[in-house]
C-alpha cells in the first residue's frame, strides 16, 4: 500500500566486502533509479572500524535521505531487494562482513515497531558512523523520535575509529 504524500526517510549504507567503496557508491546510484523514491542528498563516505568481530575489514558507511510515497515496509522491501542485487547474505555472523547493508534509520517523524521493522533504528543513537554522516545532510535541529536531537546525540559519541573518505 502506498501513501498519498511524500515523506523523507533516512537510510544508512555500509559495506566491507568486494570493494566496499564501489558497493556504497553503486548503491547510491541505484537508489536514484528506484521508484517511487527520489534520492534527495547523501553524505560523504566514511571509513569505520567494524562493530562486531574485529577480524574483518573496515567498513565504508554513508547516509542518504530519500523522498518516497511508499509505506515503511514497502520501502524496506525495496532496500532489501537492492541488498540482494549486491549479493547480501543474511543469517551469517551477527555484525559480520557484508557486501551491502541498507538500514532504514528514520521514516518521516514516525516511530514504528513491528516484528519486521523498528524505526527509528534502535541502535542509531550509539553509532557515530550513522550520526556523523547524517548530520551532514539533516536539518541542524533534527529530532530523532524518542532519542533526542541529532546534534546532542552526536556530542555524546566519540569520533574514534571513523574517518571521512574524500569523494
From TrEMBL:
Superkingdom classification of source: Bacteria
Name of this protein: 2-amino-4-hydroxy-6-hydroxymethyldihydropteridine pyrophosphokinase
Lineage start: Bacteria, Pseudomonadati, Pseudomonadota, Gammaproteobacteria, Chromatiales
GO MF term list: 2-amino-4-hydroxy-6-hydroxymethyldihydropteridine diphosphokinase activity; ATP binding; kinase activity
Principal EC category: transferase
InterPro entries, per database record: Hppk, Hppk_sf
Coiled-coil segments on the chain, per record: none
Reported function: Catalyzes the transfer of pyrophosphate from adenosine triphosphate (ATP) to 6-hydroxymethyl-7,8-dihydropterin, an enzymatic step in folate biosynthesis pathway.
Occurrences of domain 7,8-dihydro-6-hydroxymethylpterin-pyrophosphokinase (ranges): 94-105
Similarity comment text for this entry: Belongs to the HPPK family.
Gene Ontology biological process terms, A to Z: folic acid biosynthetic process
Record-listed E.C. numbers: 2.7.6.3
Keywords: ATP-binding, Folate biosynthesis, Kinase, Nucleotide-binding, Transferase
Keyword field contains Membrane: no
Pathways per UniProt: Cofactor biosynthesis; tetrahydrofolate biosynthesis; 2-amino-4-hydroxy-6-hydroxymethyl-7,8-dihydropteridine diphosphate from 7,8-dihydroneopterin triphosphate: step 4/4
Gene name of this polypeptide: folK
